[in-house]
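Table S2 (continued). Query chain:
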Amino acid sequence: MKCGNLMVQKITRIQTDQAHEVSRLIRQYINIEQKHRGVSNGDAPHDLTLSRHVDK
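Corresponding output:
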């Protein structure tokens, strides 16, 4: 999970079986925060990608 902007980013790695649910909840939180701050969709990044790592 990458957080930040184009200049500064922080990468956080988490392992869970519920990655899609976590992703959905984070997207909801970001949308609520953007609406609360009055940020329009074109002014802020809105992509969130969680990748699945499968151990063998």
